[in-house]
Amino acid sequence: MKCFFDTCHEAVAYTTETKSFGIYFSEESNPTWHVHVHDCCEIFLCLEGGSTFLVDDKVYTISDGDLFVINQFEAHKVVASKGSKFVRYILHVHPAFIYANSLGDVGLSPCFFAANKITKVSPTKEELSKLVALFEDMKAEHEYGDAIYKRLRATEILLEVNRLFATHTTARDNAFRHKAVQLAIDYINGNYASALSLDAVAKSAFVSVAQLSRLFNRYCGTTVTKYIAGKRITEAKKMLAEGRSVTDTALSCGFNDYANFIRTFKKAVGVPPGKYRADIL
Fold first, then answer.
1. C-alpha closest to that of 152 among 217, 196, 108, 201
2. pTM, two decimal places
3. Is 238 exposed, middle or buried (0-12, 13-18, 19+ CB in 10 A)?
4. Looking at residue 6, what is its pLDDT?
5. What per-residue string of b and e applies to 103-139 under the rule 16 or more CB within 10 Å gives b?
6. Dihedral sign, CA of 257, 259, 264, 269?
7. CA angle, 39 as apex, 35 and 45 as ends, to 5°?
8. According to the model, what pLDDT value does residue 67 have?
9. Which of these, 57, 68, 64, 56, lies nearest to 85 by C-alpha position?
10. Which residues of the chain have pLDDT under 50?
């Protein structure tokens, strides 16, 4: 059973199509990802070379060995440190797989969907070694029962990650905060349904447009415009999953141009909003 893929996009596509899981391992030093969302949850384990991680409305600093969890409604983007290898494992797992392999009171979903959800923890050396060993074990091929073996290992990774996020309670709020960036993000999150201009966002943060652009690029690894688009698509996915119409969703998320909403949503999610709504309901 193939579970490691050459690109993150291939792992996401396989996970979404099969409603199972896919893994991406890389040492690429310059990831080119933009702010994005996808229809699967993500476990991101950074072994070396990470800088910052933008997840929804927070920016996290990355240290070697940090572990992140992201659900399918959270827009995100990672930034690598300059001039060093960026070593990481990324496990993409479909919610259907998570729920199908949960048993009784022992669920595999709390780390992704709990009301008091944490995004980042820093495992101990022993905990990190255990996780890496589980990922490495997934690379082996077995003549008998290979698919079953790998599904068991993926479930074991999910169980271990949930245990870590349940026990590392000291990481309740460890997001990095830059005052101007946070003010801008708060303003965007409160006004994404309206027409947003760079000037208005900059004024909300009490800086110039040029200063805001530099700060976003430095701390978030993206532009203000791309962050706004990511926020709107994230909220659109939630509304469509609740059964809202495509037209109502477009207007409620600040897309006054219906055709532009269709194009933007398909580019970010991979399918048009109408198909996304039909598939998820």
1. 108
2. 0.83
3. middle
4. 92
5. eeeebbbbbbeeeeebbbbbbeeebbeebeebbeebe
6. positive
7. 65
8. 96
9. 64
10. none
User: DSSP 3-state assignment of 15?
Assistant: helix
Instruction: Please work out, in degrees rounded to the nearest 5, the angle formed at the alpha carbon of residue 35 by the alpha carbons of 101 and 87.
Output: 65
Residue type, 27: E
What pLDDT shows up at residue 269?
Answer: 82
Pairing of strands 4-5, 21-26: parallel
Beta bridge partners of 5: 24
Helix (H), strand (E) counts: the chain: 12, 9
Q: Cα–Cα–Cα angle for 243, 247, 253, nearest 5°? A: 85
SS3 labels along 166-226: HHCHHHCCCCECCHHHHHHHHHHHHHCCCCCCHHHHHHHCCCCHHHHHHHHHHHCCCCHHH
- Interatomic CA distance for residues 160 and 74, integer angstroms: 22
- Spell out the domains of the chain, with CATH numbers in brackets: 4-171 (2.60.120.10), 179-280 (1.10.10.60)
**What is the DSSP track for 31-86?**
----SB--SSEEEEEEEE-EEEEEETTEEEE--TT-EEEE-TT--EEEEEPTTS--
**Which of 196, 198, 265, 201 has the alpha carbon at shortest distance from 230?**
265
- Asked if 76 contacts 56 with a C-beta cutoff of 8 angstroms, the reply is yes
Strands laid side by side in the 76-80 sheet: 58-61, 50-55, 76-80
Q: Which two tokens stand for residue 27?
A: 């040492």
Q: Which is nearest to 54 in space by CA: 82, 39, 69, 35?
A: 35
Torsion of CA 205, 209, 214, 217, to 10 degrees: 80
Rg (CA), the chain: 19
